[in-house]
Amino acid sequence: MQGTDTGSRNRHSAPVAADQHRGDAVTAVQDMSLIKQFNDLMPNWTTGTGLRQLCAAAAVVAIIGAAIRPAAAEPVPAPKPSPRATQLSAAEPKQRTPQAPAQPVTKLTTPPEPVIPDPRRNVPASIFNTFDAAQKAEAAKASTYLSSLQTLVGQFVQVGPDGSKLTGDFYIMKPGRVRFEYDDPSPISMIADGQSVVVRDRKLATQDVYPLSQTPLRYLLSDRLDLLRDTNVVSITSDDLYSNIIIEEKNAVIGTSRLLLMFGTKDGQLKQWTVTDPQGYDTTVAVYNLDTTRRPDPSMFKIDYTNYGTPPG
């Protein structure tokens, strides 16, 4: 989501040639040296010397970077549709779990101001050994909301670790598919096809490939999600405006990363998320003008592993 060009980019960010195939890309990503290159890059995100470097780094941090694991880490399965979900078509939305009638979408003409977490905060692991009834209810409410979403279209504002802002549009189609398009002048777009995530640079005609199962996206794109059962929730808090749920992931090689999900207390909708990487850098993505009735074109989520070009859609 949000040095020199050759020094700051991941060494796997090679131009995609016509004879390149998916196997080469995935093999390259799983190379253990990616972790070292990725961690070497992260301190430079706050002092980038060019707009392209800043945009590319911000996109990787916000959507992918903080949860990249080495190949030796225990694999996490990619989101899979439930047996019931695979039998449904776009013309059968009423067969899913009953929901309240969709409310008319009120378009915001001015992007919201993201809520930036206090950088001095310290949320230790297992802050609560158990959660009380109110906290469990908040987690259940968020789980039901996320599971009920099958498509989601909207706009976003991304704030990087250095305070820089990027905007754009996003499209989600469960399970496992998402596309983030950053507004000009950023040349970055990000696409997940259900198995892999690609961060593309239209200016340089390059793309970085990551396993979807090793990114925070898997939580938002999973067909069914129980936060307390399927994730390591370490904190649940709420106030008059937001319900906050923090998910923590530990890795022996790259350290601990966290994902803070914020939902509106009154409407229960997803408002923003903050990814904290193992170095402690925060990237916040606020979403708005959400539309759950619009069905994106499936071709928007196709990844061309053999030839770089403008993504379809």
From TrEMBL:
The keyword Signal applies. Residues 1-23, 73-121 are annotated as: Disordered. Keywords: Lipoprotein, Signal. It comes from the Bacteria. CDD domains: LolA. Gene3D superfamilies: Lipoprotein localisation LolA/LolB/LppX. It holds the Pfam family LolA. InterPro entries: LolA/LolB/LppX, OM_lipoprot_carrier_LolA-like. This is Outer membrane lipoprotein carrier protein LolA. It comes from Rhodopseudomonas palustris (strain ATCC BAA-98 / CGA009).
